[in-house]
TrEMBL record:
CDD domains: AKR_AKR11C1. This is Aldo/keto reductase. It comes from Paenibacillus sambharensis. Gene3D superfamilies: NADP-dependent oxidoreductase domain. GO terms for molecular function: oxidoreductase activity.
Length: 327
């Protein structure tokens, strides 16, 4: 496993890390036993960073991480998120009393005294522009409840606004072969300011595995079913904002990336990891085999300059106009 600095935070994290939305809920049926086995496999392979949120299974993924990392708290970094357990449009959710309560609840579930990276969970743009929440996070940092803080954003604009606050140490961003825009302006600016980049949805909710067909179905409690068109939250969080059928078709046009790289998923992760401004990718998982498949990306050959240009052009000509939602 290779490690990269998380911006100027002083933390060094595994370039392939993992997100725990899937094991918490909203991705269909899960098994706690399988989840804990998968977490153990990841840590044994050198993964030292996991991303979660207080709303993933109403805190269940935080509780699973507490069990999995017990006794290894000093070795394993955990990032969690807050605000979506309340009305995200209410300024009350971002005041000290609320954020402190969210933080204390996450600390109890995680079984920790301090959160390594505390992130605002996709708040409205006006909340970021107002900036009061960053003063609240500074206070929590001074109190020792959090080590560093960052923002999980939906759009490039939100990322650029967040960079205006000097103590932001990380941005969590949707970035993949179907969502290339953040790489143009946001990532270089973040890098200049010592802000780490965590890439979520690197496989576009599974589209970039190449395993789906137009006939593929998902369980009713899987967001790929209930949020397919943005019915429950930002449409960009599901299939990168692409209509499912279009995403399947575009995925098939990208099948060539697997040539000489074992499979599409590994190739899609390698494309992200080759960006020098990226700290880590945080794909999801529900079992050990998915963890192992994602870990294989560490050994996938890089893309040539010609291939990279072909992928840039593919995004501009074939993908960009079909993405829904703000980005």
């Amino acid at each position: 496993m290779r490690y990269r600095p998380l911006g100027s935070s002083g933390m060094s994290v595994s370039e392939i890390s993992f997100g725990t939305w899937a094991i918490g809920g909203s991705w269909g049926q899960t098994s706690d036993e399988a989840s804990l086995e998968a977490l153990a496999r990841a840590m044994d392979a050198g993964v030292n960073f996991f991303d979660t949120a207080d709303v993933y299974g109403d805190g269940h993924s935080e509780e699973l991480l507490a069990k999995a990392t017990k006794g290894r708290e000093d070795q394993i970094h955990i990032a969690t998120k807050f605000c979506r357990a309340a009305d995200i449009h209410s300024r009350e959710a971002y005041r000290y009393e609320s954020v402190s309560a969210f933080c204390e609840a996450s600390l109890r579930r995680l079984g920790r005294e301090r959160i390594d990276l505390y992130q605002i969970h996709c708040p409205p743009t006006d909340i970021l522009r107002d900036g009061e929440v960053f003063h609240v996070l500074d206070r929590l940092r001074q109190e020792g409840k959090i080590r560093e803080y960052g923002v999980s954003v939906e759009t490039v604009e939100e990322g650029l606004i967040s960079l205006q606050y000097p103590n932001v140490r990380a941005l969590q961003v949707i970035y993949n072969l179907f969502r290339q825009l953040p790489g143009d302006e946001l990532f270089p600016k973040a890098h200049e300011q010592g802000v780490g980049i965590l890439v979520r949805l690197p496989l576009a909710s599974g589209l970039l595995t190449g395993k789906f067909t137009e006939q593929s179905t998902f369980a009713p409690d899987d967001h790929r079913s209930f949020n397919r068109n943005g019915e429950s939250f930002n449409v960009g969080e599901t299939f990168a904002g692409l209509p499912f059928e279009k995403g399947v078709a575009l995925s098939s046009q990208l099948s060539w990336i697997a040539d000489g790289r074992s499979n599409m998923a590994g190739a899609a992760l390698r494309w992200i990891l080759d960006n020098p401004h990226i700290t880590c990718v945080i794909p999801g998982f529900k079992n050990t085999s998915q963890v192992e498949a994602n870990l294989e990306a560490a050994d996938v050959p890089s893309f040539t300059e010609g291939e990279l240009e072909k992928l840039r052009q593919f995004y501009k000509d074939e993908v960009k106009e079909y993405i829904r939602g703000p980005y």
